[in-house]
Amino acid sequence: MPKKTVIYKGIGVSDGIATGPLIRYESEQLFQKGIKIAGAAIEEQKKQAETAMTDARTELKKMCSEQCDEKLSKELLEIQIELTEDPMLVEKIEDLIDQECYPADDAILEATEQIALLFEQMDDEYYRSRAADIRDIGQRMAGHARGIAGRGTVQLSEPAVIYTREVTPSEAAHMDKSKILGFVTERGSPTSHSAILARTLGIPSIVGVIIPPQEEVDTVVVDGKSGILYLNPSKEQLTKAKEKQDIQLQEQKRLEKFKEMNACMRSGEKIEAYINISQSDEADEVFTVGADGVGLFRTEFLYMEADEFPSEEKQVAIYCDVLKRLNGNPAVIRTLDVGGDKQIGGLSLPKEENPFLGCRAIRLCLNKPDVFKVQLRAILRASCTGTLKLMFPMISSVEELLAAKELLLECAKELEQEGLAYKVPAIGIMVEVPAVAAAIELYIDLVDFFSIGTNDLCQYALAADRMNPATAHLCDYFNPAVLRLIYHTIQTANNARIEVSMCGEMAADPLAIPLLLSMGLRRFSMNSNAILGFKDIVSDMDNKACEKLLSDIWKINNAKEIRKYLEKIKNDQEKI
Amino acid sequence: MIKKKYKISFQEGLHARPAKMLVGIAKEVQSKIYISNEHGKSDAKSMLGIITLQAAFGTEVVVTIEGADEVAVEKRLEDFFSGEEEA
User: Residue A216's closest CA among A25, A24, A10?
Assistant: First the structure.
């Protein structure tokens, strides 16, 4: 009898579909035995702990030199090697044996657990996630103390989807990646080790799913995009998933060549492609997909994660980290963009009747100069490290822009007086309020660049809430009025030779890309996973086709028909 | 014994790369080096200890150096904390 189909929803952290058997990988965690030793055994146990640490170190060094070709894994192993001889850890272990009469293995587990807990309480997310490294090394050393070598190594006899509580760094470094079809983990986030590794290796992955132990599982389907996991899928679901997988694989293979290529039109004209990020380490993806830099760094996530605002120092460190990772490529940093609809830690915002028309983004920041200045100072300071560009969100009038710029200069003056290094970066604004798009010429002498945000531009121009299911369908960026606002912005900027880009959803829409190129847009910013497809579409476009497309579009008076027209163009192109 | 105050000049704080460099120095020299701030006191040979100090950019740490080569070590730490010693 076929086992029952169950569907779980987690968070998709690495795109793609995987189908196959599920292997529950219990990392057979070692637990403390909870016994105490007698006085005579103390010296012996201390010696045993020391030997266990040396053995673990030798084992790690061997793994590091033998089987480690990935930079990421190598770095992780090096940290662990360092930990096996860390005086703080050694001292803690010896104290536990000496004073608390722990046996060697228990002392190792207890000491590493204590330090891991300490790390988990730190402000810095990077160090919070290092707690896993510390527990990992504890398991490895305790294993040696109990005479088990090579802990943390997954042996797979056949390709499978791995299900585990959490993938520890050394486990991740030593899995036979050719046999891993997908990852499903109980714990983790888009920035946890397994997620980063999965994306680097292109393995579909979901986090935040708990499969009860009594659940009997033969086959699973992992959809790393939607985050949906099918246990024992029906024949129909499996066939469907396999079809989807085949199409994706073929498409991926076809797009692979674009990693090394610029986005170029048929004429050879280069179109700039940037990625949108919310966390500093995502900047690395620029090199994975062959993009030109970061076109949008959404800083609000720094504010949402913590209970309090990130300090100036912390922000400097994060922005510098992005710039260092980019190695000279530019990064556009957008200042805090939140409002009454999103509560953030450290700031209680009054509930507003119409949060999207309320005191949000730049309005909120100008109302709270103390908070805003911390970010502006951090941006000015980080600007020395690389090519940083500063962008203000939701500007709706010249006065607002001038006020924001004045505050920036005030911060620069302060830094000057304090003797801290800073650099005033290029300044730009989001064009997402129709009032700005309609009068864009008023801003060309005041800024260095524009970036069109289509999501908000659309809902403001069409007076339709994009979060409200009853009106969301009205929020169509192919609406002729929205297109005219966008066109006017692009043309005015191009004529004035001011950089203009687009960072909203529209920039990555395969239907919209040909139209935007036709309108003269030459800079696009999108999620990194859309870049290869983008380059593909761009490579099929030529100026003549653009001209015709644009003149045809202007004749159509509604979004539905425009969509239809663009779909037809897309299908015609695919047939060629 | 030498006791000195240093300001952290690393943008990221005394973390990751700088912490690793400091451990490297401490292991090379004869003197015992200890670092302390409001979060505690750590042997400079301990990466874990240094990290738990959470010494951020612009904050101060007190360093004690004790040993035969303490004068030379002080000079090296001077360079290190000013950001001139590169790995």
Answer: A24
Residue A408: Cβ-neighbour burial (10 angstroms; 0-12, 13-18, 19+): buried
What pLDDT shows up at residue B87? 43
Residue A421 forms contact with B (CB below 8 Å): no
Indicate the residue of B48, B52, B57 with minimum beta-carbon distance to A83: B48
Q: Residue A435 is which amino acid? A: A
**Could you tell me the sign of the dihedral formed by the alpha carbons of A228, A232, A238, A242, in that order?**
positive
Q: For residue B45, give how far its alpha carbon lies from the nearest alpha carbon of chain A (Å).
A: 7
Report ipTM for this prediction.
0.84
**Given CB atoms, is B67 within the 8 Å cutoff of chain A?**
no
Interface residue A53 vs chain B (CB under 8 A): no
Q: Which run of H or of E encompasses A272?
A: strand A270-277
Where chain A has pLDDT below 50, the residues are 152-153
Q: How far apart are CA A186 and CA A188, in angstroms?
A: 7
Asked if the Cβ–Cβ distance from B47 to A83 is below 8 Å, we say: yes
Q: Residue A576 has what pLDDT?
A: 57
Assign A81 to helix, strand or coil: helix
Which tens digit of pLDDT belongs to each residue from A333-373? 999 988 756 656 566 677 777 888 888 899 999 999 999 99
Inter-chain residue contact B48 with A115, CB threshold 8 Å:
yes
Looking at residue A13, its pLDDT comes to: 82
H-helix segments, chain B: 16-28, 47-52, 70-82
pTM: 0.61
Q: Is A113 on the interface with B (CB under 8 A)?
A: no
**Contact residues on chain A for B13, CB-CB shorter than 8 A:** 313, 317
- What's the pLDDT tens digit per position in B6-31? 999 888 788 777 888 899 899 999 99
The whole-number pLDDT of residue A194 equals 66
Smallest CA–CA distance from B10 into chain A, residue: A317
CB-CB neighbors (< 8 A) of A316 in chain B? 11, 57
